[in-house]
Specification:
Blueprint (H helix, E strand, L loop, with lengths): L2 H31 L1 E6 L2 E6 L7 H18 L3 E5 L12 E8 L4 E2 L12 E5 L5 E4 L4 H5 L3 E4 L2 H8 L5 H5 L1 E3 L17 E5 L7 H12 L4 E3 L6 H9 L1 E6 L11 H9 L3 E5 L14 E3 L4 H10 L1 H8 L2 H27 L2
Parallel strand pairs: 2-3, 3-4, 4-8, 8-9, 10-11, 10-12, 12-13, 13-14
Antiparallel strand pairs: 1-2, 5-7, 6-7
């Protein structure tokens, strides 16, 4: 071998070694810093670690359901929960990939974060146009075996669009019943009216807060509370939560905020949302137009005891209590159907 060839060969070996260590670095970064992999009974579960704080509790709730299903059925499976994780050569278990949609699908034309090729759906807006069917992270979601969603209106909007039939077959509703126990006591609630707007410079939020400040409402906006236990304390000290759409275009009802509030005995006054009849607890929400929501809040607070008794009557409490069991049944059915397939 000539000196030149030897020199080239040595450089190739050096490059291969460098690439190998880069691969190891990326592997460690992805599997340690971007994901968490752990053993649960005879199963392996992989979850991504970089979960946004405002959806962390919902993600963790899904994880609890998965663990319950594994224990109940004595399963030996690999579960990837909402992450681009590859569990290879770990065992011979069947792997099931679950993804979670946290975003609005019911979006009007002109909305932000909407791809140009987003298809038009079949659900009408108030202006008698059609909502778009926006699916954020479509490729990741559709590569999963089960797609979990916090919203039935989201699911229906996708289902009614002919483009996403394969996606819809995997798309299921898991209500964000984040708290095991209900707290519906009416007394000792010191916050009369509450919003939890993080970005208060969003035009619609800013306008509402300015109008509230000019009104007689005793109102607070608290946007630094993200821990599940702290949110629970906040809600249990609150009479009314006001919920509005963040933008004039994104219209899926914010169940991730409103259902946990109901679980803690808060009256929810919300801006009207499309397909609200598909929300299981629709009749427990007080719906209002955006321009009338301050007056509606005043009305509710002036008749607080009456409204609270009507919303948190026995039959509604029973419905809220059984939603967690319905979640377990729905997810268990999907998981068991998938792992029984050849």
């Amino acid at each position: 071998m000539s000196i030149n060839n030897t020199y080239v060969f040595q450089n190739i070996i050096i490059i291969i070694n460098i690439l190998f260590y880069i691969y190891i670095y990326i592997y460690i970064y992805v599997y340690i810093y971007m994901s968490t992999i752990f053993k649960y009974n005879d199963s392996i579960i992989g979850i991504r670690s970089n979960i946004q704080r405002y959806v962390y509790d919902y993600n963790n709730y899904i994880l609890v359901l998965v663990k319950d299903i594994i224990s109940k059925n004595n399963l030996s499976i690999n579960v990837i929960l909402d992450g681009d994780i590859t569990l290879i050569d770990i065992n011979n278990n069947k792997t099931i990939k679950l993804a979670i949609n946290y975003e609005h699908t019911l979006v009007k034309e002109g909305g932000r974060s909407v791809a140009r090729n987003t298809p038009m759906g079949n659900i009408k807006t108030d202006e008698n146009n059609n909502y778009l069917v926006r699916i954020d992270r479509y490729s990741q979601l559709n590569s999963s075996n089960i797609i979990i969603d916090y919203s039935n209106p989201n699911i229906f909007n996708v289902k009614e669009c002919d483009v996403y039939s394969d996606f819809s077959n995997k798309h299921i509703y898991i209500a964000p019943t984040l708290y095991e126990n209900l707290y519906i006591e009416r007394e000792n609630r010191n916050i009369e009216s509450l919003t939890t707007f993080i970005n208060t410079n969003e035009p619609r939020r800013k306008e509402l807060l300015e109008k509230i400040s000019e009104s007689t409402l005793n109102h607070r906006n608290i946007n630094n509370c993200f821990e599940k236990s702290k949110i629970k304390e906040l809600y249990q000290n609150t009479k009314v939560v006001i919920n509005i759409h963040q933008t004039p275009h994104h219209h899926t009802f914010e169940e991730l905020r409103c259902l946990p509030a109901l679980q803690n005995g808060v009256i929810v006054i919300s801006e009207k949302s499309p397909l609200n009849n598909l929300i299981p607890y629709n009749e427990l929400i007080i719906w209002s137009d955006y321009n009338n929501i301050i007056d509606k809040t005043k009305e509710v607070l002036e008749n607080y005891e009456e409204f609270h008794k009507k919303i948190f009557k026995e039959e509604n409490i029973k419905m809220l209590k059984k939603m967690n069991d319905e979640n377990k049944i729905e997810l268990e059915k999907k998981i068991m159907n998938y792992i029984s397939e050849e």
